[in-house]
Structures are given as structure tokens and as C-alpha cells.
Amino acid sequence: MSKLVINTYNKKATINKNIYGHFSEHLGRCIYGGLYVGENSDIPNVCGMRTDVVEALKAIKIPVLRWPGGCFADEYHWKDGIGPKESRKKMVNTNWGGVVEDNSFGTHEFMELCRQLGCEPYINGNVGSGTVQEMSEWIEYMTFDGLSPIAKLREENGRKEPWKVKYFGVGNENWGCGGNMRPEYYADLYRRFQSYVKNYGDNKVYKIACGANVDDYRWTENVMRNACRQMDAITLHYYVHPRGWMEKGPSIEFDETEYYITIAKAMYMDKIIKGHLSIMDRFDPRHRVGLIVDEWGTWYTCEPGTNPGFLYQQNTMRDAIVAAYTLNIFNSHADRIVMANLAQIVNVLQAVILTEGDKMLLTPTYHVFDLYKAHMDAELLDSWLETVEIGTAKVNPWQEISCPNLSASASEKDGVITITVSNADLSNTYPVDCTLVGKRAESVTGRILRSGKVNDHNTFEAPNTVAIQSFDKFDLDGDKLHFEMPPCSVMEITIK
Ligand code: AHR
Questions:
Q1: What's the pTM value of the predicted model, to 2 decimals?
Q2: pLDDT of residue 395
Q3: Which residues does the chain have with pLDDT short of 70?
Q4: In 3D, which of 402, 482, 470, 392 has the Cα closest to residue 436?
Q5: Is there a smaller number of Cβ atoms within 10 Å at the N or the C end of the chain?
Q6: Segment holding 188, helix H or strand E
Q7: Which ligand 1 atom sits nearest the alpha carbon of residue 213?
Q8: Annotated catalytic residue, options 75, 173, 412, 492
Q9: Residues near 32 by Cβ (< 8 Å), separated by ≥ 6?
Q10: Which of 295, 379, 412, 492 is an active site residue?
């Protein structure tokens, strides 16, 4: 029996809806074919954006979308992606498969996509190979509502009204693909570039500095020391590679040991968030600067027969558990994490949607975002969950890792309590006794994601192998709720 105690009197922080954000890069079939097919496509579209994909994303209420990269961001020159499509300059996408990028999806198209999705744009600027002038003019192009050659150019390209752009990243992974910089050098460049990212009219830019990879605390320390006064947030990237960076491991054909290693590695997110936050505290004791995990998720060996530069992978119940545990971790840090962006939204890495021609499927990870969507902008409730460690495995001769059997978070909005619980155990069902301190519940409903095997996944031929089902096996008595968590499952519980 596991105990779960939820204290409804103790509201810890508002869960920023942007924690449920996404990331789209000019990489493989994420933009082209995934989100955008062009106005002349036979695939139903509005202004080139796939209707099926847009509708599916609207159903999970995606709050924010990051673009154009990733590594691509520091090679992207935004002026190549505006104006008549036939005269847009082509380029080689050196990071991702060496394919020709025809720039038919640019600033106007991205803003149109965000309009259709009803989400905030998060633009990532180019520090690695761009200029200060270029970055400065991009913000002016998008947001200046006055007379200037750049604003006129926007009008000539069909858009008189400026857009609103709140989130702007100054470089991406500048310790790696974004210029191989030392943190001290990047901090100086950050200070310089951000000076020219101006606020026009009432558009107030939230400036985001490039943060660390995984547990590179030295990067966070140096960038915070030298530039924290000039930033609103700093980022963190963490990917889960079951076997390691070089070999990674397949997306579907994994055994139990590799599964538990994957979940244990996903749990490392909590440790590194705490590590980076404690460094940020030293330079920003008032917590003015937010932490943004703008790339996270599983990264496997790409599917056989696909372009290795396209990072296309399948998505199983293992990914659902990774997403469920990770989103509970983000919720638990709702006081400091202001945004997170799953990598990536369609057809790349831990995607929520896969497409093939005119076909589309929703992955198990999509369904987790569906089960968690009530947490967006809700108040995080203090909770305590009794867990045991499972799946102990040696990842090398001197290191053993394991993961908790259960993970949960709870929130409240408009008097409705949402609990998300996940059971990572592949064999055992866990009965859960939940006490709701300060709440006499009148009704409870549930939705669950589970499947016969952890390797189960959706295909274009069988798109509903893994799907949400309703769940009603609850015993509710005022402030006491009892239910059982089946093996390898994710559940949303709604209490009124
Ligand atoms: O998401 C794929 C890549 O991973 C991104 O382009 C880069 O920022 C990271 O290394």
C-alpha cells in the first residue's frame, strides 16, 4: 500500500502553463512535412499548416512553441526566410543531414502557425554565426510599430501590424554547436547581443540566456556571475540516452533492464535542476531569473532505414513514463521553472505526433500531455507520496541506479483538484491510499494510459494501440480516496 497525502491548504506556486511547451526545429521532418506542407499540398492545410496536426496540438492546448532551433538557430539568417518564396535564398542544413533548406518556412509562417495554434512564439536568435545587427533587426522586424526601413519591409511582405514576441533566446548551446564558446566569452557576447534586443511599443521581451548542458554547473556559474542582471531566464538542456551518447539504444526493442535505466536516467532531471537552481541562488537570491528547460526528452538511435540526421524515432509506453515522471518533476519546481519545451513537437526525437505523407498518429507521449493539461496555470498543491526504489541496475562497474515505483503531482484550479500519478513498475500493481487534507470530495473521475507491453506503440496501421481510457475504480469517502495503479501506467484523477 502506498500513501499519498495532498494538503489542499498549502498552495506552493502557480504551475506556469509554459512548462507544457514544445520545440520545433528545422530538422528532419519536423517543420517540412510535419507542421508545414505548403499551400499547394493535397494534404489539408490552412496557409500551408497541416490541419490535422494543428487540430491535434490545439486539443492539448500547447502554450508556447520554440523555433527555429536548436543547432539550426545559430546558422539561421532570418532575412533568408522572408519575401516571395520563389526568391528566398537556399542554404545547406549542415547540422541535420546536409539537406537543402529552401527557407519557405520563415518568420511569417512561424507566426501564422502560432496564431493557428493559439500559442506564444519563442524565437531563438543566432549568436554563433550571426551579427548583433541581424538579431537587433529581427526583433525590430517582428515588433516595431512605426516608420523604419525594417518595419516597411515587413509591410511589403504582407504584414502591416507588428506581432507580439515575448520570449527571445540569445543563442542556443553556445558551448557546443552554437560556437564552442567558453562560458565567460558567451556571457560577454550575451551582454552585447541582448543590449540591442529592444522593447518596441508595449512589446516587452523576456530575454533568455543560453544555459548549460546536463550537469555543467561551471557554465551556469560563469554565465550567472557575468550576465545575470541582463537576463530574465537561463536555459538547461537534458536528453535521456539509455545506453549513452554514442550508442543511445533502439526506440522499441529494449529489455526490462534498459527500460529501468531509461527511467532512472530521466529522474536525473530532478538532481540537475536542484544543482543549477542552487548556483542561480548565489547570484540571484531573490529568484528574479527563471529556469527554462527548453530541450528535454528521450533520444534513441534513429529508426532503421531513416536518415540519421533526421532523428526520427518511435515512441512507446516507456516514453510515456519518462514524460509523466519528468512533468511531475517540473511541477514540483513550479516556483522556479518558468518554461520547458519537449524535443521535439513532430517527427523528431520524443515527438508527440508522427506523420507519414497524409497520415498522422498521436504518440503515447502526446497522451501524457493530454492527461496533464489541467495542471497548466493551476496552483501546485503540497503533496507527499510514499515510494520504493525499483529496477536497480548497474550502468557501469562503480554505479548503480534505480527509480521510484510511483511519481505524482497535484494541483488545484477553480476548486477542481487534478492528480497525475504514474507507476513505472512493469510487474506490480500498487494500491494507493490518498488523503486529501482540507477537502471533502464529492466526485472523482479518472483517465488512464496503459498498454499490455511497455514496448507498445502506435503505428500508421494501428494508431490506437496506446490510447487513453476512462477509469472509474475509485473508492471515495470524503477526504479519503483509494485506487490501484496498474503496472506501467499514467493516470489523471479529477476531484470535485
Ligand atoms: O534537438 C536536437 C538538438 O539537440 C538541438 O538542435 C540541439 O540544441 C541539441 O543538441
A1: 0.97
A2: 85
A3: none
A4: 482
A5: N
A6: helix 183-195
A7: 10
A8: 173
A9: 26, 104, 105
A10: 295
Please confirm, yes or no, whether 295 is among the known catalytic residues: yes
Read off the amino acid at residue 445. T
pLDDT of residue 1: 85
Q: Which three cell numbers stand for residue 262?
A: 531509461
SS3 380: strand
As separate numbers, helices (DSSP H) first and strands (DSSP E) second, the chain gives 9, 26
Q: Residues with Cβ < 8 Å from 85, sequence gap 6 or more?
A: 102, 104
* Cα gap 18→64, rounded to integer Å: 6
Closest CA to 121 of 50, 41, 187, 66: 66
Q: Whose CA is nearest to atom 6 of ligand 1?
A: 70
Indicate whether residue 25 lines ligand 1 (CB < 6 A): yes
Q: Is 295 in the pocket of ligand 1 (CB under 6 A)?
A: yes
* Alpha-carbon distances of 438 from 10, 417, 466, rounded to whole Å: 10, 12, 36
Q: Residue 172 has what DSSP assignment?
A: S
| Ligand 1 centroid distance, CA of 310 (Å) | 11
- Residue 80: is it exposed, middle or buried by C-beta count within 10 angstroms (0-12/13-18/19+)? middle
Burial (Cβ within 10 Å: 0-12, 13-18, ≥19) of residue 347: buried
